[in-house]
Specification:
This protein has 253 residues and is of the alpha/beta class. Helices cover 20% and strands 36% of the residues. The chain has a domain of 127 residues: D-Amino Acid Oxidase, Chain A, domain 2 (2-Layer Sandwich), CATH 3.30.9.60. Helix 1 packs parallel to helix 3.
Length: 253
């Protein structure tokens, strides 16, 4: 906790209990706010993503301001490398990267915040702005007022139209597939090729990256997962629509 808390006694509400919302809440609490987070899902979030490369500011957060041990949350590799289509190394240099998994990161932030300030099953549907406070309305009929309200509930936030009525979702031009695979189940040749490195394979209009992350049971070698993300440039049109149609026949936005 910081030595000075300029907002001691003030109240804050954060809408959205994912990583962004939890981060905002922890920073506000360090400034002195009494913070409560409201998440729309009825149970703790899980399985919302795979690997995350830990940037220096995130490493600094867990080192300087978190009660969680970074060693229990992350994996690391000592090299960056590029492979050709046959799996041969085209380029390799020494460079450290640190990683975590989405679930590990989320649970660490939630542990720092504490369950008493985290409320599940509350879907924010609107708000009113007063002269000295804002009041959030939830689908359940609950209302909550605070000195400060932060909306961190994603691109489908009900508040987005209030802040920026012209904002529209726009296709970025690429699709990404991501997943994980147990490192212990990789064949020996593949495991050796990917060992101690963040690995890239670049082909026309596409690239793949792979790196090891903590598993659900911890960071030990036997629990680690190989995270992979395959990016592919696809133009808007029938090809993209087909690509985004799942096995149930539903098309993602």
């Amino acid at each position: 906790m910081t030595a000075t808390q300029p907002y001691s006694g003030a109240t804050a509400v954060v809408i959205g209990g994912s990583i962004g919302g939890l981060t905002a809440a922890l920073l506000l609490r360090d400034l002195g706010f009494d913070v409560h987070v409201y998440e729309r899902t009825p149970s703790a979030l899980d399985g919302r993503g795979s690997g995350i490369v830990l940037q220096p500011d995130t490493v600094r957060w867990f080192t300087e301001r978190s009660a969680q041990s970074l060693d229990d949350l992350s994996t690391s590799t000592g090299y960056v490398q590029y492979l050709d289509r046959d799996g041969r190394v085209e380029f390799r240099e020494e460079r450290r990267y640190d990683y975590t998994s989405w679930g590990t990161f989320y649970r660490a932030l939630l542990a720092d915040l504490g369950d008493g300030s985290y409320h599940l099953g509350e879907f924010a549907c609107g708000f009113d702005q007063g002269t000295d406070h804002a009041t959030v309305r939830f689908v359940s009929g609950t209302t909550v007022s605070a000195d400060l309200v932060v909306f961190a509930d994603g691109i489908t936030s009900a508040a987005r139209q209030r802040f920026d009525p012209q904002a529209k979702l726009k296709y970025s031009g690429y699709v990404g597939w991501r997943g994980t695979f147990p490192v212990r189940d990789l064949d020996p040749q593949t495991r050796a090729a990917l060992d101690d490195a963040i690995t890239f394979n670049v082909v026309p209009n596409s690239h793949i990256t792979m790196y090891p992350i903590p598993g659900e049971d911890g960071t030990a070698a036997e629990y680690r997962l190989m995270n992979y993300v395959w990016y592919r440039n696809v133009p808007e049109g029938p090809e993209l629509t087909e690509l985004l149609t799942d096995k149930r026949g539903f098309t993602s936005p």
